Every structure is written in structure tokens, then in C-alpha cells.
Amino acid sequence: MNLIDFSEKIKDFNDFIIIPHINPDGDAVGSALALCDVLRKIGKTAYVADISENMPKNLGFIDVCGYTAPENYAPKTAFAEDCADKERMFDKTLFEACGNSFCIDHHVTNKGFADFNYIDADASATGEIVFSLAKSLDAEIGKNCAKYLYCAIASDTGSFKYSNTSEKTFEIAGSLRKIYGEFSNLSHAMFDEFTVEQLRMKQHVLESLKFYHNGKISVMCVDYEYLENNGFTFDDADFLTSIPRSVKGVEVGIFAKIKRDEIKFSLRSNEFVNVSEIAAKFGGGGHKRAAGVSFKIPYDEAVEKLLKAIENEIR
Ligand SMILES: [Mn+2]
């Protein structure tokens, strides 16, 4: 479905509930709130599923209060966003309870599980698509909406650093800058600000950093017990994921989160190793430069398996 037809379809429906993916990230949250604003701008009733307890730690400056659906709200139209498939939905029951459904997304694997789908895999973030949708619907983007879209796009592009950052990304960012004003405070809060506890965790985790294959592969890990004892959740360690890859000379960086009987590995590569293929060998998946896989075997054995698979790709 093209964007014009998609926007026309939206006009035929009402009473929307916007649902992002599970463990919503900056793009999922920012796009949800922005989409809600856009729908309201064209006269629709719209709310976002209650993500207030699942907000990313670096988006503390965003208040979802006016967006969360009240308890007696009876939505008729579900609007999935930034969610590649139904199983990854923040609230699948809510999605299925609605008679009609829309989906807007940028994941290349999205097969279009809603009644009406608009998927643009070239978009760096769902936020980029919401921006285009607003233009297509002739909905004015206000200051708050611009802020949400900035958070969405900055989040999925690693602050405009990843290879998915296109000319269009910068054009949209330029338009948002015009509406919102300077973004340095948001950028600081999202990317450059940490609590003392987070830095202590980083210090602890860095001690586990090890190198293999002439320094081309690095592995770092954190134990669930450590996180629990220090008041962290499993996801709280995610901000450390890219550290192994950031070391000069490293092609593949591995970050392992060890939880008693299960180990979750995040794989990141810099130039040529397709880590989604490595992850797929063991039942995982993801993108070329960022993928994930889980093992239910002892840590050392799991690392050995991954190292072997990666070493075959590094010559
Ligand atoms: Mn996204």
C-alpha cells in the first residue's frame, strides 16, 4: 500500500489505540506519541497503550500521561507501529480485540500483519515514516510532536551516526529543528548522561572484556546476580552493548548477559561480518551489523561456539 492510499484509509476509521513493540525503545515510544498527535490533529480520538511502566531509562523527560488510554476507553482501531510481527507486540490481546487494524513500520522482515500496512524498510526509523504520514495527512507538526519524532529518529540512528542515516533523515531532522529549536538538551539526556550507578556498572563490566583472534573479536559479559544485587534489571545493562565493538581493531564485539540457565548474546560488527547469519546458525536473528542469540548451555561452551562461527568469517 502506498502512503497516499494508506493516509486516505486512516480517514475512514476512528477510536485508535497505538501499540508499539515489546520493551519499547526510543523509536517505538517517540513514534507512538507523535502518531497519536498526528491522528488527533486530523480530528481523531487516539490513545497509546499504557507503556508508562516500560519507558526507556534515557527518555525520563517524556511524559506519556496525556497519551495513555483511560481505563474505560473502548478502541475500535488498533495501530501497530515499529513492530515487525504480531508476536513482538507490546499488547497482542489489545491489538486483536480491535475490529480494524493498521500497521506502520520500517523493519524489512515485516510481512504486513494488519488490515492496512505501510512498511518502508528504507526509513531509518518509524519516526521518519510518521513524519511523512503527517505531511500526507496535512497534519501540522507541533513542538511536542517534533520532539517525539526527534527522539524516535535519533534513537534508531544512534544520534545520526549509523549507516541507516540517509539524506532524507537529515532533511526531516532539519524540518524538526525548525519547529522545535535546538536539540542539545534532549541529545544530552538521551546519549551522554548517566547515573553514578550506571558508571559503576560499566566499570565492573569492563573488567570482563577479553579479546580473541588477534584482537578482532572481543567479548564482555555481565551476570544477572550482579545486576539484581545492585538494583538493576536485565535490560538496564543494554547501554553497554556496543562497547566490545568500539575497541580499535575489533570487527565483532560480543556482549553476554548471563541469567542462571540462559545466556543472551548481543553481536555487533563493524565492517564485513554479517552477524545476523552467525546468530541464525544458533536460532537467533537480527540485522547485518547488530544481532542477538540465546543459549542454554554453560557460558564457556556458548562463547566457544560463537567464536568458532565468527572466526570462519574473519580471515
Ligand atoms: Mn525502529
Automatic annotation (TrEMBL):
Which GO MF terms are attached to this record?
nucleic acid binding
Q: Which InterPro entries match?
A: DDH_dom, DHH_sf, DHHA1_dom, Oligoribo/pAp-PDE_c-di-AMP_PDE
| Domain DHHA1 positions | 229-314
Q: Which parts of the chain are coiled coil?
A: none
Give any Pfam family that matches.
DHH
Q: Which domain of life is it from?
A: Bacteria
- Please list the residue ranges annotated as the DDH domain: 16-153
User: What is this protein's record name?
Assistant: Bifunctional oligoribonuclease/PAP phosphatase NrnA
From which source organism is this entry?
Qingrenia yutianensis
Q: What broad taxonomic lineage does this protein's source fall under?
A: Bacteria, Bacillati, Bacillota, Clostridia, Eubacteriales
